[in-house]
Amino acid sequence: MASIEVNGKQFEVDEEGYLANLNEWEPAVGEAMAAAEDQVLTDEHWDIINFLREYYEEYQIAPAVRVLTKAVGKRLGKEKGNSKYLYELFPYGPGKQACKYAGLPKPTGCV
Amino acid sequence: MAVKKFMYVNRKAPYGSIYALESLEVVLIGAAFDQDVSLAFIGDGVYELTKGQNTEAIGQKNFSPTYSALGDYDVNKIYVEKESLEERGLTLDDLQHLVWEDEDDDWAEKDSIRLVSRAELADVMAEQDICLSF
Question: Cβ of A22 under 8 Å from any chain B Cβ?
């Protein structure tokens, strides 16, 4: 299995770069994964990443983009609950990319 | 695409086979297609919805919290067969309280579970375009 190094620590990842063990996650891992994709994480990114982690904690799944969009709109305000806003933050797809930085598995049904 | 009525029929205990988890995953994936989806829990399938599941000893993931996410996926017709519960000494209180939020009613929380008799469930099944059995 592949691994990435963050602050001198090794983290196992799968063939698509998703963290193998979600309990190992720390914010620095998200930062490092983002940096590798030339992304700088702002507070707005972290709002979504933290939301995904909370959602996973509660329901044991990463939400589908449609579900994420609706929930973000409800929690963070209507102006953020649309796919344009989320795709601007995460151009490779909010489900795929934000889940990766959050240390979660790829969303169910995401190919 | 015409909307069809899909019913996923869950008949097996949650662990010991892959049916329960597979059904749940298919439901979550299928929810993206805007069809008319309902779930039925009959026989040992009613155990899938029980509260307080603990899978530590069998080393498997406890996926029961995921049923609470169904409402987010607009899956809010969950039929539980009364006779199946009774035959196993269970009542609705032994099951998770599953709800969905009605966007058109100021996000009011509404119950997703509908307790139905065997005969009533047979009628609901007869109305479906597609029944998938797990």
Answer: no
Looking at the complex, does the CB of residue A83 fall below 8 Å from at least one CB of chain B?
no
3-state secondary structure of A54: helix
What is the C-alpha separation between A28 and A94, in angstroms, rounded?
A: 19
Within a 10 A sphere around the Cβ of B56, how many other Cβ atoms? Answer: 7
As a whole number of angstroms, the distance between CA B35 and CA B95 comes to 26
pLDDT in tens, B11-48: 999 999 999 999 999 999 888 888 999 999 999 999 99
Q: Note the ipTM here.
A: 0.85
Q: Which of A28, A35, A36, A110 is catalytic?
A: A110
- Residue A99: active-site member: no
* Residue A108 touches partner B, C-beta closer than 8 Å: yes
CATH code of the domain occupying B5-133 = 3.40.1260.10
Domain at A2-101: CATH architecture: Orthogonal Bundle (1.10)
